[in-house]
Amino acid sequence: MWQYQRTDELYHWGVLGMKWGHRRYQSTGIRAAIARHQNKKVDDSFKKWKENSQKRADAIELGKKKNAAQREYEDDKTNKNSKKIYKDAKKAYKKAYRDNTTYRKGQIRKEVGSDLSRRYLSAARKIKKELDKNPDDKQLQKKYNNLMSKHDIERARARKAPEVAAKRSSRKASAKRFMTMSIKAAAGTAAIAVGTRVVNKYLQNHDVRLNGNPVHIKTRNIRDASEWIKKGKNILKYFY
C-alpha cells in the first residue's frame, strides 16, 4: 500500500516478493500452476516407466513358464496334455513379449533365453551322472550331446539379444526421424503449392501485369526466394 505523507516522502508497506502490477496471490497462483504442470509431467513419466517395467517383468515371468512347459513337452512329446500346456504358455508369452518396446525385448530375450539354457544345462548334468556310470551307452551320450548343444545355442542367443535389440531400436529411431522429416517437408511443399495457386488466382482475377505481361508466380521461385532469405540471414550474423 502506497501513501503520500506531508513530509514529501513516499512510503510503502508490503511484503518480500511483491512486484509492480501484480497482486501477491496472483503471483503465487501462477507459480503453483507451473509447479503443478511440471509435477504432472514427472508423474506421467514415472507412471509410464512403471507400466513398461511391469510389462517387461510379466513377459519374463511368462517366458519362464513357457520354458518349463517346453522342457516337459520335450521330455515326452507323446503327452498331448503337455503339448497343449506348452502351446498355451508359448502363445501367452509371445503376446506379452509383443507389448514391449524393441529395446526391452532384448532384455526379455536375454532373461528368458538364459533361463532356458540353464534348464538344458541342468538336464544335461543329470544325464552326465548316468553316463559316467554307463560310458558305453550311446543313447545317453546322444541325449547328453543334444542337451548341451541346445544349452550352448540358447546361451549365445541370450547374450547377443540386448545388442541386437539396441541396434534394431537405433535403426527404428533413425527411420522414424527420417519419416518425420519427410512428412514435414512434404507438408511444407504442399502448403507452398496451395499458396501459389491462391496467389496466382488472385493475380489473374485482378489482371495484374508487369511490363504488359500477366504476372504468374511459380512454386520454384518461392522455394528459391526462401532459400536465399535463409542464406541472407546466416550471412548477416557475421555483420552484427
Rg value = 36 Å
Helix content: over 70%
Strand content: under 5%
Unreliable segments of 5+ consecutive residues: none
In this structure, how is the largest beta sheet organized? 2 strands, antiparallel
Distance between the termini: 45 Å
Q: What this model shows, in words?
A:
The structure is a single chain. With 240 residues, the protein is mainly alpha-helical. It has a domain at 187-240. The protein is built from five helices and four strands. The chain has helices at 24-75, 80-98, 102-133, 138-205, 219-236, and strands at residues 2-4, 10-12, 209-210, 213-214. α1 (24-75) packs antiparallel against α2 (80-98), α1 packs parallel to α3 (102-133) and α3 packs antiparallel against α4. The model has no long low-confidence stretch (mean pLDDT 79).
Notable features of this structure?
two-stranded antiparallel ribbon, 240 residues, elongated, mainly alpha, 79% helix, single chain
